[in-house]
Amino acid sequence: MNIMIKKILTPATIAIFLWGSILLLINQYYYEYVRYYLYISIIVIFPIMIWNLIKQWKKDKVEETKEFKPSIFRMLIMAVVMIVIFFITKQNHI
Q: What UniProt keywords apply to this chain's record, in alphabetical order (predicted)?
């Protein structure tokens, strides 16, 4: 049971939970700031993502593992999915 909790409660899942909770609170009380919160989220996560990729690339070179290439493919697939969802849900706001 304790091992199961350690697998679920990782720093990444806690960060995603807090990010989502803050997003819901902003959406509930200050709807006009949701867009800016999402912009700031992108600005914050982009350097973290690049740092993680550089770390994986260096690890692949030193230990001769194959983690970097699947990470890039996952990111590309998710980017395509997000772009498709964006165009499906795009609405004309005037």
A: Membrane, Transmembrane, Transmembrane helix
